[in-house]
Amino acid sequence: LPLGPRNKFLWISTITMAFMLRQIMQSTSSKLVTDHSKIGKKVGDTKNVDFDEYDFVIVGGGTAGCVLAARLTEDPSVRVLVLESGGSGRSLMFTRIPIAFALLLRTKHVYQLYTEPQSDAKKQRKFWPRARMLGGCSSINAEMAQYGSPQDYDEWGKIINDEAWSWKNLSKYFSKFERYEDDARYPDVNSGIKGKGPVRVGYFSDLQNVCRDFVQACTKIGVPLCHDFNTHAGTKGVNRMSESFSVTYIDENRTRVSAETAYLTEDVLNRPNLKIAINATVTKILFEKNGDETKAIGVEFAKTKNGQRYTVRAKKEVLVTAGAIHSPHILMLSGVGPADHLKSKNIPVVRDLPGVGANLADHPVVDLYFKDKHNKSVKHVKPTTIGDIPKFLGSLFEYLLHKSGPLTGNVGEAAAFIRTDDPSLFPDSDFKNKVKDTTSGENGPDLEIFISPMGYKEHARYIFPMHTFSVHCCLVRPASKGTLTLKTTNPFDLPAVDPKYLSAPEDIEKIRRGLRFILKVAKQEPLSGHVDYTYKNKLLDTDREKATDEELEEIIRERVETLYHPACTCRMAPEADKGVVDSHLKVYGIKGLRVADASVFPEIVSGHTTGACYAIAEHAADIIKAEYNLNSKA
Ligand SMILES: Cc1cc2nc3c(=O)[nH]c(=O)nc-3n(C[C@H](O)[C@H](O)[C@H](O)COP(=O)(O)OP(=O)(O)OC[C@H]3O[C@@H](n4cnc5c(N)ncnc54)[C@H](O)[C@@H]3O)c2cc1C
User: What ipTM does the predicted assembly reach?
Assistant: First the structure.
């Protein structure tokens, strides 16, 4: 552009903005290894090239993997290698700006997974994005820092018959990872019971008026206010909610806190006993048989589908932390899984474990959309009209200059956790169909209702062009369970995932109750003051109140989506109960092999899943340190 005064302004603004954006991105440390020949041995290399040996090889540098890497290398005598199939998460701008994560979902930094056609959801294939970068899904999630209910963990302790996993013992690991400091704006939060760990949590996200008023409206229809979801009381009484969405994984600089930013600090990366290889996809685990004993002795990995394979040895253990999709995938590719299925794919069976890939659980969510009377939605954060562009630039400047505004939002700004059998919300006189209790205990919820200050579909690919807000009904204790199986034996092909959404009829009834709850809240002051009831549009749900049960069921089957929480595919449970790992997270029947991530959940928690993954990994690190007599402090 010629340098006229107007263009000069444009240039200066653009350069300033680019500079400021650069500031919020953190550079990829030179500590990350990209030359794989420096850490592994080429498969097929006839010369007996010396290659590095590590005590522990961590498969997947995601949420749990980063925790294990940092904790285990606190002992300088232990050598740890992390193999991560993606690159650095913190060097990507869209992981740093809190609201921008949705822009990453359909990029090469995210596995583009689709479910099998869902028989009970109009045969649709549902998009299931999973992160492919350091920090894993903690680098792309919606930053909601709610950890589930204490009863969920008591249930875990019972299933695996080990009190170490029940809330009274596991809760110390939640304190170990989180860091919450006093916030004068939230005097009712007891910081004395909070942790001082590396993962900063706090009330630093944006809160739009419509979301604040949702909270008020909920309290008016009988949902008590809860000042903090994450206490020992948890969601006790369940009809409680927070003033804003509890806390978020967003720090005082209004940037995302991921497992990579919190645990892989410069100090940790500089430890001589830690190596992290990126763009390194583990293709299989290597085993050695000695009599009746099978031991994991290392892994094979590669950069690309047809690229050079490398191997690396693990003197002590292989620790699989590739998440709920890829951990069972890697086990199966390596011969650990249901024998019949492996044989059908010509994979030699190392250990028959029918639980691998079974029990797939996820939180289904159904959204309702309302026209925003005040035209105050934050739809301009992803501009869809010409008019959105100046507003977007304004918000970008506000974010960069003042660290405030809608870009500091996390989409799900306020929430209510309720029970579908709560007679004060769902009286028998109005709700004739009975519901089965699938909660983890009488104080656990089965529904989460949360609100976003804009309407969107298809994981934010589609933003409504008019001003809307959406309220989401998420079934946090679904009865429907699914499966994960191999499609092919190529490790670079994604597995077949079938969550079997809505296959249990009670799931429909519970979500329907949730939708009725939403429609009632939308009619309640002060939220009703935000709804334009005169605006008619078939896409919106403003006048859905009179919908029949059948019509709501139709909406549920049409709109059901994932809340991105797959779990339980390598369940920690007795082997006879389709368990894959024991209470020390060791894979049954194999030495030197553990799994520690969302796949080991014995049951899905009635809340968000990142906290549980951090706690599992912190606990796993202590279990391993105790077993090998390792030091705890760096
Ligand atoms: C869009 C989205 C929004 C979410 N919102 C929230 C939220 O608001 N709050 C919340 O608590 N939870 C949320 N979640 C869920 C939460 O982030 C995950 O449950 C959690 O982070 C999973 O951690 P993990 O350690 O099990 O796996 P991940 O964090 O997924 O880590 C797995 C890692 O393994 C790597 N990997 C996979 N295969 C291989 C291989 N073969 N070789 C090497 N590396 C491999 C991956 O690249 C990844 O880094 C969300 C998730 C998504 C996707």
Answer: 0.99
